[in-house]
Amino acid sequence: MAFTWIFYVISVVNASLPIRYLLLLALTWLAAFPALAQDADSEDTFSAVVINAQSQLPLESVHVINLNQVVGTITNAQGEFSIRAAVNDTLYFSYLGFKSQKIRVTNDMFRFSGTKIALTELAYALEEVIVRPYQLTGYLEVDVRNLPVNTAYQYSISGLPVSYEAGSKNPSAVTKVLGAILNPADLLRNLFGKHPRQMRKLRQIKEDDRIRDLLASKFDRETLTELLQLEKVDIEDILTNCNYSSSFIQTANDLQILDALSSCYEEFKVLNREN
Question: pTM value?
Answer without folding.
Answer: 0.63
